[in-house]
Design a protein that fits this description.
heterodimer; A: alpha/beta; FAD/NAD(P)-binding domain; Immunoglobulin-like; 3 domains; seven-stranded mixed beta sheet; 9 helices; 34% strand; B: alpha+beta; CPE0013-like fold; 2 domains; five-stranded mixed beta sheet; three-stranded antiparallel beta sheet
């Protein structure tokens, strides 16, 4: 029996395993389905990773490499090319790999770090025919950056998520013509810096409040029709623009990959599409933790690392000191807030501060983040600007939580 | 007065710079430095890939070890097309020294073992 099994060897799994080792666990297994560790970072060859955590600007593969190096100094066991098929609530992990065959490993604790997957064309139901030339942005990224294939020459990108923006630049640098980036919402889903350095640097137009309303072509994409949408996101007839192109990239959101989580009977949050977690990233099943993009989709790997280190340390504490207890505060989404992680806080378990990640549901100017209970405001934080594409983080001191009973609401009040 | 968004870090500060290059709205000194460079002589780190032989994959990710002038980006890309690396390669290995006399090297950003 292992003290800890970590499912997934991307940034979340690597950071969690290292932290668990540093916190005293000595029998840890990482299970990774790809041929090597590092996860999706290996295909994210652009820079901008690590500014918060390492205080320097790294590319994705470099960031992953830092943690693979750290891991190699520990005694953590790694099984690559191995797929986890099932996790049971009594912490048995069913897996299959070329060397082991089908095996069931038991663990005293489990960390779920499977990451997320891209929403596909089916998930957003675009009308039109089904020719070749339609890719998710992440699939195109792997073709270009790892396998060495160009998906097309004239490209339209639907969605302004960060991977779509990064691929707009990447395809341009590799000689393709990116005609447009089309976003159904009135604001971008990606980081502002990516709008600047990926679109504006290369004069790629961004059409906000627009969507793809038709795809033409029999064997290969030949044209994409783009229309403006009204405030209810319905296409407005007569606003059609036709782009002659051979490729459509989809960057329309990421979904935490939680088949194993729900199979284990763990409570999921319909807002994050990840597990409901406590302050230490523990799920509704004691001894099972979730961190990184499987818990909620992050913008920055640096925060994945920090969150996963907390999960790793908490798993070690669970194995070495026993289950965490105490009363629970529910974190409620107030006006302007679309989700929070964690969803539950046990003040007894908070050491210095409890960090709360959240996203807002629209763009806000100068605002105050207000944390309140039934008696009124308990904490406030000022921000110059809030956007759905940029995850926010606040820290609540342990002292403050001691006097809170039942629930806490996080809400946004716009000042201007 | 020019308005610009900082790309130094993901915080993405909305900054303003006047004709004398006085910068406001930046949260850290790197923002002011970026704004002044952006208005006088913009530079970027170029990240891309080069061909590699003998590795499990056909592309090796690389970057310029320092930002290069923006107008050099296209010619840097053209230079990258001309080289083929051979596995094994380690993070930081120099693939092209002092590319186009910019003072920046092109370095590998991934470990790729020999197949």
């Amino acid at each position: 029996m292992y003290e800890l099994i970590v499912i997934g060897g991307g940034p979340a799994g690597l950071a969690a395993a290292c932290a668990a080792w540093d916190s005293g666990l000595r029998s840890i297994l990482i299970v990774e389905r790809d041929r090597e560790l590092g996860g999706i970072l290996n295909q994210c060859i652009h820079n901008g990773f690590g500014l918060t955590y390492f205080k320097e600007e790294l590319t994705g593969p470099e960031y992953a490499h830092r943690f693979v190096e750290l891991l190699s100094k520990t005694g953590v066991e790694v099984r690559t090319d191995t797929m986890v098929l099932e996790v049971t609530p009594d912490r048995k992990v069913h897996m299959t790999g070329p060397e082991t065959g089908y095996v069931v490993e038991e663990a005293k604790s489990i960390i779920l770090a499977m990451g997320c997957r891209e929403r596909t064309r089916g998930a957003i139901a675009i009308p039109g025919s089904r020719p070749a030339g339609i890719f998710t942005a992440g699939a195109a990224q792997r073709y270009v950056n790892v396998e060495g294939y160009m998906p097309g020459k004239r490209v339209v990108i639907l969605g302004s998520g960060d991977i779509g923006l990064i691929m707009a630049r990447r395809m341009t640098l590799e000689g393709a013509k990116v005609l447009a980036c089309v976003e159904v919402m009135p604001y971008s889903g990606g980081l502002t810096r990516n709008i600047v350095q990926c679109l504006e640097d290369y004069d790629i137009p961004l059409y906000l409040s627009h969507t793809v309303t038709d795809i033409k072509g029999r064997d290969r994409v030949e044209q994409v029709v783009v229309s403006r949408v009204d405030e209810r996101r319905r296409p407005i007839p007569g606003t059609e623009m036709v782009f002659d192109c051979d490729t459509l990239l989809l960057s329309v959101g990421l979904i935490p990959e939680n088949e194993l989580t729900s199979g284990a009977g763990i409570l999921l949050d319909p807002r994050t599409k990840g597990a409901v977690v406590y302050e230490n990233m523990e799920t509704s099943v004691p001894g099972v933790f979730a961190c990184g993009n499987v818990a909620h989709v992050h913008d920055l790997v640096d925060f994945v690392t920090q969150e996963s280190q907390r999960a790793g340390a908490a798993a070690a504490k669970y194995v070495l000191n026993g289950p965490a207890g105490g009363e629970t505060i529910d974190v409620i989404n107030g006006s302007g807030v679309s989700y929070t992680v964690p969803q539950r806080i046990r003040p007894e378990n908070v050491e210095k501060t409890a960090g709360i990640f959240f996203r807002v549901n629209r763009i806000f100017g100068k605002s105050r983040i207000v944390v309140s209970n039934r008696e009124g405001e308990v904490a406030g934080f000022n921000r110059e600007r809030l956007a759905p594409g940029e995850m926010e983080r606040i820290a609540l001191p342990a002292k403050l939580l001691e006097n809170v009973k039942g629930e806490l609401t996080v809400a946004i009040q716009e000042v201007e | 007065m020019r308005e610009l968004v900082c790309i130094v870090c993901p915080r993405g500060c909305h900054m303003k710079a006047d004709e004398e290059l006085n910068v406001t709205g930046n949260a850290c000194p790197r923002g002011a430095q970026y704004a002044r460079a952006e208005l006088t002589h913009p530079t970027r780190v170029v990240t891309s890939t080069v061909r590699i032989t003998g590795a499990p994959y056909t592309r090796l990710p690389v970057k310029t070890s320092a930002p290069v002038p923006k107008e050099f980006i296209e010619s840097v890309m053209a230079e990258l097309c001309k080289v083929t690396a051979a596995a094994p390669v380690h993070v930081g290995d120099v693939i092209i020294k002092n590319i186009l006399s910019t003072g920046a090297d092109v370095v590998a950003t991934r470990e790729l073992v020999a197949k």
